[in-house]
Amino acid sequence: MKRPRRTVGGAAVVAAIAALVTVGGPASANQQQAGVPAPLEQQAGLHQLSDKLPKSPDQAGRWIADGKLMVAVTNEQEAARVRQAGATPKLVSRSQAQLDNLLAKVDKITRADRGKGLQSWGVDPVSNKVVVKARGAYGALSGLGDGVQVVQVTTNFKQQAGEVNPGDGWWPGAETDHCSVGFPATDAQGNKHFLTAGHCTNDANQAAYGASGQSNKLGTSNVGGSRSINAREGDMGVVAVTESGWTISPNVNTWGQPAIKVSGSAEAIVGETVCHSGNTAPNFECGKVRSVNQSIDYGNVVIDGLTTTDACSQGGDSGGAWLRGDKAVGLHSGGNSSCVANADNSIFQPVNEALTKWNLTLLTGIPDPTDDEAPTTPGNPRSTGTTSDSVSLAWDASVDNIGVTGYDVYNGSTLATTVAGTTATVSGLAADTSYSFTIQAKDAAGNKSKASPAVTARTQPGDPGGARTLVNGTDYPIRDFQTVISPIRSNLTGRAASPVKVTVEGNHTCLEDLNISLVSPSGRWYYLQRYGGTTCHPLPASKTYSITPSTTENAAGNWTLRIGDNGPGDTGTLTNWSITL
User: Fold this and answer.
1) Sign of the CA dihedral 177, 180, 186, 188?
2) Which helix (H) or strand (E) holds 108?
3) Which residue from 100, 34, 54, 69 is spatially nearest to 269, judged by alpha carbons?
């Protein structure tokens, strides 16, 4: 087991990373240089500015360049608002909605035309175009006009195969190729895990080792076969750290420099400096973000939602940690077989999607030992709805001297679920049965409140027709250019029904902005609603979709509803959804 490394924080984090960033830009294996990265102190300030600057239908993307936050705008009025906020506007001809419509057309063509030299595709806010990279002219897109630009490339992307610290190496089973540790995380029960690449964890229940060969076992990857994705949804997986003597640490291995303690997670912006740690030389590498939310064709698989950078990487870095300062931003997915200047050399999977996918909490440091004050008891616990196999609950928020981090919901004396907010749905219950629930609040130091008063609720009688309906009643905000990921765990037996019915409840001001899809336990995607259109209509309060699943689709496992908001200036909330299997 590796000894703990010294940690740095605050200004020391900036200094440590700045020392690792080449003055001329990212250093490749041959010390190639590509542009001057903005000082990290200034970059952090630009992120704060971006967070405060409201989005608008008259904006078409943001990026960082020459030490400024750049904002694409479609008119002078919006340009004036952006200047007043402290950012730099750039007048463009296409709105975000027009770019998204073009991207939808490109995506449709590329899905039907695989295997013809595609490398990646997505919106580029700097050029105000959809940029497609391909090994050839790729004439299939010629009819879409000058809003779609085809860039010819010569390289191929590959998924680099290969106390626990981000950036350390790990070995799947008896395989000789290694991977790298992403970020440590815990589940609702406090069990230890780390995130890594999905193509490193494709084998279910495979032993994971801290050194090559069958020695130094630290845990098991892809437990139960449900903790690895390497498909359109993403390239992400989970390793459970279970062996005696192994701990997880938020201290990133920077391979000779002072360790960087992870303080939280964030999303990347085009043009900013990011760094990654992995188990292959040069081990710790920095560069600039070139594009976000890209569809990447690895040849054997297409993956959506990835980020590209000009930092270099090697085989064995897969799964490793990508940082923006001391914030976790991604898990290394792949890159070029050779590193070239001013190119898409490395690719990462956004880390927040992986944390949400498996309901994990990023480990960001040792709890404050001086905090011994427990949160107040959750008030007014109540049932807000029942089905034949679920009960939805709500309660009034607790308060804490530092801050409440979540709530544990107990079914009798058994922990049923852990949530961050003040609502929860407990599923997998028996029909026509009375249950008693209590709630406890907890803080970052591990202090727990007293249990709330018990709330009793009875599930509804079972459907005499044999329909099996599961519900997730947790509220999720639907925000511009973000994806809601809401899972339902099914313990039902046998095959899924045909058809499967999905009912979505909530509100949104523009249904045409939304992509709504269902991901089955086998990883298959079923599209319920495709975004597109020039006129907005509100999402109905309740909308039911019907799909015909594969004949091999089993009912048991995680069914996940994904709602992606692909347009600016509209908001909403997913309040409830159900699936009849």
Assistant:
1) negative
2) helix 96-111
3) 69
pLDDT in tens, 397-420: 898 876 677 788 999 988 888 776
Instruction: Tell me which of 214 and 25 has the higher pLDDT.
Output: 214
Judge contact between 184 and 218, C-beta under 8 A: no
User: What are the structure tokens assigned to 457, written together?
Assistant: 């609720």
The residues, any chain, with a CB within 8 Å of residue 316's CB and separated by 6 or more, are: 160, 161, 162, 169, 177, 178, 179, 180, 278, 279, 280
DSSP for residue 201: S
CB 444 within 8 A of CB 367: yes
Q: Which CATH number fits domain 158-362: 3.40.50.300, 1.20.1540.10, 2.120.10.30, 2.40.10.10?
A: 2.40.10.10
Q: Report strand pairing: 321-324 vs 273-277.
A: antiparallel
Give me the residue label for tokens 């080792």.
Answer: 209
In this predicted structure, the answer to whether residue 26 has a pLDDT above a threshold of 70 is no
Burial label for 30, CB within 10 Å (0-12, 13-18, 19+), is exposed
Fill in the DSSP letter of residue 106. Answer: H
DSSP H or E segment with residue 333: strand 327-336
**Based on the number of CB atoms within 10 Å of its own CB, is 434 exposed (0-12), middle (13-18) or buried (19 or more)?**
exposed
- What confidence tier does 127 reach under pLDDT thresholds 50, 70, 90? very high
Report, in angstroms and rounded to the nearest whole number, the Rg of the chain calculated over CA atoms: 24
Task: Kindly give, in sequence order, each residue whose CB lies less than 8 Å from that of residue 354, ignoring residues fewer than 6 positions away.
Answer: 182, 195, 234, 236, 238, 331, 360
Q: How far apart are CA 280 and CA 554, in angstroms?
A: 40
Residue 561: burial class (beta carbons within 10 Å; 0-12, 13-18, 19+): buried
Give the SS3 label for residue 190: coil
Quick one: fold of 379-458?
Immunoglobulin-like (2.60.40)
Query: Tokens standing for 67?
Result: 């030490």
Q: Under 8 Å CB-to-CB from 484, ≥6 apart: which residues?
A: 476, 477, 478, 561, 562, 563, 564, 574
Nearest to 305 by CA among 227, 202, 229, 235: 235
Give the residue-averaged pLDDT of 130-145. Answer: 81
Q: Say what the pLDDT of residue 447 is.
A: 86
- Residue pair 63/126 in contact by the 8 Å Cβ criterion: yes
Q: Do the beta carbons of residue 529 and residue 511 sit within 8 Å? A: yes
Of the candidates 223, 217, 215, 224, which has an alpha carbon nearest to the alpha carbon of residue 239? 223
| DSSP per-residue letters across 2-57 | PPPPPEE-THHHHHHHHHHS-TTS---TT-----PPPPHHHHHHHHHHHHHS---T
Indicate the pairing of strand 500-508 with strand 572-580: antiparallel
Question: What DSSP assignment string belongs to 162-174?
Answer: --B-TT-EEEETT
Domain at 469-580: CATH architecture: Sandwich (2.60)
Listing DSSP states for 235-302 in one string gives EEEEEEE-STT--B--EE--TTSPEEE--EE----BT-EEEEE-SSTT-EEEEEEEEEEEEEE-SS-E
Q: Six-digit token pair at 345?
A: 């050399």
Tokens matching residue 250: 């938020």
Q: Is 579 helix (H, G, I), strand (E, B) or coil?
A: strand
The full set of domain ranges for the chain reads: 25-91, 110-154, 158-362, 379-458, 469-580
